[in-house]
Amino acid sequence: TDEKNLVASISEIAIEEIQINPFQPRVNFEKEKIYELAESIKELGIIQPITVRKLGYNKFQLISGERRLKASKELGLKSIPSFIRIANDEQMLEMALVENIQRENLNPIEIAISFQRLIKECNLTQEECGNKLGKKRSTITNFLRLLKLPLEIQDGLKKDKISIGHARALINIKSEKNQLNIFNDIIDNGFSVREVEQIAKDFSDRNYNYSAKRKKIDFDDIIPFGHQKKLFDLSKSLNVEIKLKRNKKGNGKIIIPFTDDDKLS
Question: Does residue 32 carry a catalytic annotation?
Answer without folding.
Answer: no
